[in-house]
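assembly run, all chains below
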Amino acid sequence: MIDLLPHIINGLTLGLLFALIALGFTLIVGVMEVINLAHGSLFALGAYFALTVIGGGWFAGTPFGAWWLSLPLGLRYVLALAIGPALAGLAGMLLELCLRPTYGKPPLYGLLLTFGAALVVEELIRLVWGTGEQNLALPQSINSAFLLNGMIFSSYRFFAAGFSIAAIAAVWLFLERTSTGAVIKAGAHDSEMVRALGYDLAKLRLLVFGFGAGLAGLAGVVMVPIWGLRPHVGVDIVIPAFLIIVIGGVGSFWGAVIAALLVGLAMGITGAYAAAWATMSMYLLLIAVLGFRSRGLLGRKSALEN
Amino acid sequence: MISLSDIPARPAAWITLPMVVLATVLLATPWLLPAIGLYQYLGIEIAIWIIFALGFNLLFGYTGLHSFGHGAYLGIGAYAFGLFQQNVAVSLWGGLLAAMLAAGVAGALVGAFLSHRRGIYYALLTIGFGQIFWFLAMKLHRVTGGEDGLLGIPRPPLTLGPWQVALTDNRALFYFAAALLMLVLVLGWRLANSPFGRVLQAIRQNEIRARFVGYEVWRFKWTVFTLSAMLAGLAGSLLAMAQQSAYPDVMSLHQSGLVVMMVLVGGGLVSFWGPVLGVIFYFVARDVLGGLTETWLLWYGLIFMAMVMLRPEGLAGMLQSLGRRSPRHPQNATPATEAA
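ok done. output:
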């Protein structure tokens, strides 16, 4: 009998990280009805920008770079956690501008355009940061190991999981308790009505896309120490993210969170018995859920079905 | 909404002028390629991918079903061909049949699951299934060789009654692939213009209306998915022969996306000839741009993005609108000749 507890804990922490990635994705799907296949690339961009911020990047070798690297790692990490996602958000806004000609056309065009964008971003990353695998330096305070019940756990996993919970709560509060959040939700429900009430729909979309892309970048900075950083990471991550969206129901906030936890748990528990097949479990989960509920766990009817 | 507009209103001829032009170009290709500084193997690759893309466009352009996991059936065909040669018998026709059958069965199973779905959910499920097959190919080491691939696939000789031709030479294999390509092209053209093809286009234009008219839409969707998977399997068996090995790489999301990009850039949404133009454009771009810069995929991606934003009707669509402006109607295959 295998002791399942550590695998369940691993699965849940992984699920929380997946939820963080899926959050930005579901926000963009909900409001814009665009399946953003470049979401993983924005995730990767956030992480690479963070890498540059922590490592001094293009200033390495200059007096400014030397001064920068003399700053404590903790401070640089916190700055990276802010700047990486912000730059990813800007990239997301650029992508939204490219998406404008596809509005009002079948959703396929958005899918195709973001697929092309994913390819372009991946190639750009290869060009700027090189093709090799890289590591994000972490401050000692969050990157250690501890013993629990006779098992070794990495404290970074728990930091990342706690960070995800905080981010999920913050996004939920933003959507539920602020007036901007109300407009965003209204935009997801009936964008014509929102425009008729005098809100600038173009600006709203730009904002939502930037915000969703920023969340992707944030997830990138937090998750990459666990998953590793390589140019291909964007494509690797967009698949679980979109599986989670589909399982949870397109556009549903809590559906995405529940599905992410389910996927994480399924991967963790499968990993206990057959590590090589852990990734397979999420596809089987997808087929099992969609076999019974064609719109996912908490999904409602949307324009994407036409 | 753009529509496939080069389909004649009345039943079409079996052989059209662009086909004759393409066949002539294919016959001359082994001399043309070295003349412009390219190599024989490129011709084989182009022929294989055109077969794959033509089958894919029956689904994508004609029926409006967006599969983002079609590389899986190409890979299944390649593995089935290789496994047949290694475990059953070294036979060309047997291998081709086995590949089409394996890809067809996989397609039929997946299609049965997909065919009641529509729109984005359809596309997302095809990604999911494509990933499952890719993952299986990576993990079933004993069958597929995992990431190292299935190596040492022979090129069995072509046997037609008493005739036997060796396909070990790249030029011979190219002519064989080109002959299959012409066969697929003619049959595909007939199919697209048959009553069956018209129902497919009706489904693309309005699925609900097609159902109200009385067609069992899901059965058509299932049939066309299975058929296009079989053609992908055929292309896959040729790929296994060309590479003399099979790799899980062709089944990845990246490769499945490539065929979507090729078909769209070529104009698969508006023309039967879109896949042909798109594949030729992609491979010529790869070799020309790839010779100039390491990051040619970046440029191809940017071209693709610009196409989706500005001209989703692709190369074939541009040619059609050119043709409309001038009094004479140039045939769609003419630019293909130039590009080849």
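The longest strand of chain A covers residues 145-148.

Chain A has one domain: 5-152+184-301.

not gonna interpret more than that til we talk
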